[in-house]
């Protein structure tokens, strides 16, 4: 039995390492992550995480772990910005407001699929023009849902969270450990 991480995210790999888990392979699937017309944030991340898990090539006994994270302002899905202009648009919309971060985990073994979704709430301080422009210049927004990462420089913009810090980073640890164990992966094995 092998563990396959279906994600190219260095953060997810680091978070698995916190649990003492090193995947046997890292195979990020190439799937369409565009939201469907009228799709709401929570069902969106659940669908994408499940699609990722089903898309990874694996032997029937292998365990595949995939996840997806999105930032939501109300019903609006704020995925990864295409460019600095869209990142600025996202950050200005989030500035001075609370929003939700959804992270869905999908674990597959054979034809079985286990899924969990974690919802966290995040408050972003009101951003000054200096803060916004300096952050955009840092390029840290690239590849980040909502145009920011709490573990990067934008962490200075986040005075309050409610929920799972690890889920905001991209992989909630308790839920991940639980799903891996349910799929038969020995999470707490001794070296």
Explain what you see.
It is built from six helices and seven strands, in the order βαβαββαββαβαα. With 191 residues, it is an alpha/beta fold. The model has no long low-confidence stretch (mean pLDDT 95). A hairpin with a 2-residue loop joins strand 5 and strand 6. Helix content is 31%, strand content 24%.
A few lines on this structure:
By secondary structure, this protein is of the alpha/beta class.
Mean pLDDT: 95
| Overall geometric form | elongated
Strand content: 15-25%
Helical amount: 25-40%
Largest sheet, described in full?
Answer: 7 strands, mixed
Order of helices and strands: EHEHEEHEEHEHH
Key terms for this structure?
24% strand; single chain; 7-stranded mixed beta sheet; 7 strands; 191 residues; 31% helix; alpha/beta
Break the fold down into its secondary structure elements and pairings.
Blueprint: E1 3-5, H1 10-18, E2 25-26, H2 41-55, E3 63-73, E4 76-78, H3 84-94, E5 98-109, E6 112-123, H4 129-138, E7 160-162, H5 165-169, H6 173-182
Parallel strand pairs: 1-2, 1-3
Antiparallel strand pairs: 3-4, 3-5, 5-6, 6-7
């Amino acid at each position: 039995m092998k563990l396959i991480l279906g994600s190219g995210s260095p953060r997810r790999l680091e978070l698995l390492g916190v649990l003492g888990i090193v995947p046997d392979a890292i195979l990020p699937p190439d799937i369409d992550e565009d939201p469907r017309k009228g799709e709401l944030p929570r069902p969106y991340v659940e669908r994408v995480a499940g699609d990722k898990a089903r898309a990874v090539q694996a032997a029937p006994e292998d365990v595949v772990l995939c996840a997806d994270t999105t930032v939501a302002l109300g019903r609006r899905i704020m995925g990864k910005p295409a460019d600095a202009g869209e990142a600025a648009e996202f950050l200005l919309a989030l500035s001075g407001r609370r929003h939700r971060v959804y992270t869905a985990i999908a674990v597959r073994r054979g034809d079985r699929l286990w899924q969990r979704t974690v919802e966290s709430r995040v408050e972003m301080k009101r951003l000054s023009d200096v803060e916004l422009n300096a952050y955009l210049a840092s390029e840290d927004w690239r590849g980040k849902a909502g145009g920011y990462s709490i573990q990067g420089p934008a962490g200075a913009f986040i005075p309050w969270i409610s929920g799972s810090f690890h889920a905001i980073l991209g992989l909630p640890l308790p839920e991940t450990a639980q799903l891996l164990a349910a799929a038969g992966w020995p999470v707490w094995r001794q070296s």
